[in-house]
Amino acid sequence: MGGTCYPVAAKTVKNRGAHEFNFGLPVLQRALAAARFAVVSANVVTARGATPLGDTTFVPPFALIDRVLIDSAGQPQRIRLGVLGLTPPEILLWDREHLEGRLEARPMLEAARAWVPRIRAAGADIVVCLAHTGIAERFGRPESEGLATEIAAINGIDAVIAGHSHLVFPEVGSNLLPHPDLRVDPKAGFLCGKPAVQPGHIGSHLGVIDLVLQRDAGGNWARRDAQVRAISVSEVVAGLSAPEIRRYAAPLRAAIGADHSAALAWTRRPLGEIKADISTFFAQVVESRAMRLVANSMFDHARRGLAKTSAADLPMVATATPYRAGGRGGALNYTDIQTGDLSVRHLFDLCPFPDTLVAMRVTGAELVEQMERAAALFAQIVPGGQDMPLINPAFPGFAFASFHGVSYQIDPSAPARYDERGAMICPGARRILAPRIDGRALRPDDALVLLTNNYRTGGTLGICPPRKEDLLLDKLHQCTDVLRAYIEACNMENPTACVAAGGSGESWSLLPLPGTRVTYDTGAGAVDHLDEVAHLRPEFVGLTEAGFHRFRLDL
C-alpha cells in the first residue's frame, strides 16, 4: 500500500465532507487529532501516486468495523463492515485560499473503483460508501455534486450514504423521479438496486438503512434485502412519529446531549435588541429587511477596508442570499427573528455557512450576468396565466441572491438566460430590466465594486473566479463576523436606521404582469408577514404535501 494511508479499525466513522476545510488546515488538523472516531476520505491526498492506491491520503481512505450480530436463529455472527469515504474535488475551488499547494483531490469515481477491491481484500463483508455528493436530478450531469447514482453502480459497494445537496432521499414527492437511465427509486430509496439514504441537512433527518444479510453459496455474507428511511427529526421531536421510529432519537440525544447544551449556551449569548421583525418568508419575492441588513454589514466593512485605495470612490453593490428560505431545507427552514433580543444564533441563521467576504472589481456587464444567473430561480411565467408556481423547484436556494446598491426589475415571463448550475442555456434571453445605480442607468463599461462571498466567486455557480488584479478585498473575514461587528456598532437600538444605513435605498422587484397569478410556497410564520407582500394581494391556498403554506400572489 503506497504512502502512509492505512485502514483503521473503528466504532464510528465520519466522511470528510466540504465545510470542514472552510476554516483552514491547522484548525481541521486539531479537530482530527481530538476526534474519537475514524475520519475517512479516499480521494483527498497530500501526495499523488501513479494510481489511487499509491496516493498518500490526507486521512485514511477507509475504515473497518467489526461487529458480532445475532442472527434469526439466535446465534452470534461476526460481520466486518468496510466504510469508504469520498469528498468532492471542488473543495480545491471552494477553499483554494486554504488548500492551494497543500492538498490535491482525485475524481471520486476513480478513487472508489480503485479502493473498493482493496477494502474487500481486507476482509470486509459489506462495503458502505460515505459519499459527500448528491443524486443527479437530470440525466447526463456527472458533476461531483451529483454522483451518488454512479457510485452506487460500482461493483462491490453495497450501500451509499449521500449528502451535500441538502435533499432528502428517499422522499415521496421528491424532484427525483424514477428513471431507467438514472436507476433511481425515490420512494423505496434505491440507486442502481442498492440501498441509499440522503438525510437532508443541518440535522433535519436521520438516515436509516436496515440490511438483511445471508451467506451465499461460497460462505460469504451478501445483502438479501434492505429497507431505507429518512426520519424527520422535527416530526420525532413533535411526537408525530410512531414509537418504533422515535427509539432512534433517544440514543442520539444521549450521545450529543452535553455538546448540544454547550452549543446552545454559546449561541444564546445576547448581542443587542431589535425593535422590528426580520424574516425570510418572502425574501425570494420582494426586498427583504433581513437581506438589507446582511448587505449593509458588507457595505460598512468594505468602505472601511477600501477607504484608502483607488476603489474607494467606486459604486458598491452587495449580494445577499436568503439561505433559510424553505426549498430543500423544508417547511421549517426559514429565518424568523422576532422583535426583542438578538443573539449569536441569529447571526448563523442569516449566514449559516462559514463564507468569507470578498470585494472584487467588476464591470456593469459582468454584474448584470451575475444578476441573470440569480434570476434563474424563477420559473417562466406565462402572462395572464393562473396559479403557476413562481419558483423553479430545480433551482437551489443558495444560488439565488438579491443585489443591493442597484435597483432593477426581474421579468419572470422571459426565459431564464442560465440554468440552475450557472450554464448559459438561452443567450438571447434577458430577465434583468432597467438596472440603475446612483440614480442613472447602469452602463456595461461602468466600474463597480461587487461585495459577495468566497462561495459565489469559487466557480461553482458558473461565475468565473476574479482575476488577481480585480480582487480588492479578501482577508478571510467570515460574513458572520462582519455582520456581528456591524450589529454591535449599530447597537441595534434603531433597527430601521441600522438596516437603511450605508445602503443606497435602491431595491429590486418583480416586473408587474397584470392579470397574472402565481403560487408561492413558504413557511407557516409567513402569515405574520403578509404586509411585506400586501401589494401582491396574497391569498392562502392551503398546505402542500411537504408542509409548506401555499399562497396565491397577484403579479
Give a structural overview.
The chain has 555 residues and is an alpha/beta fold. It folds into two domains: 8-204, Purple Acid Phosphatase, chain A, domain 2 (4-Layer Sandwich); 270-511, 5'-Nucleotidase, C-terminal domain (5'-nucleotidase,  domain 2), CATH 3.90.780.10. Helix content is 21%, strand content 28%. Helix 1 links the parallel strand 2 (13-15) and strand 3 (38-40).
Descriptive keywords:
alpha/beta; 5'-nucleotidase,  domain 2; 555 residues; 2 domains; single chain; 9-stranded mixed beta sheet; Purple Acid Phosphatase, chain A, domain 2; 33 strands
Q: Return Rg in Å.
A: 25 Å
Identify the overall geometry: globular
Helix content: 10-25%
Task: Using the coordinates shown, work out and report the CATH topology of the largest domain.
Answer: 5'-nucleotidase,  domain 2
- What's the level 1 CATH class of the largest domain? Alpha Beta
Task: Give the second-level CATH assignment, the architecture of the largest domain.
Answer: Alpha-Beta Complex
| Distance from first to last alpha carbon | 63 Å
How many domains comprise the coordinates? 2
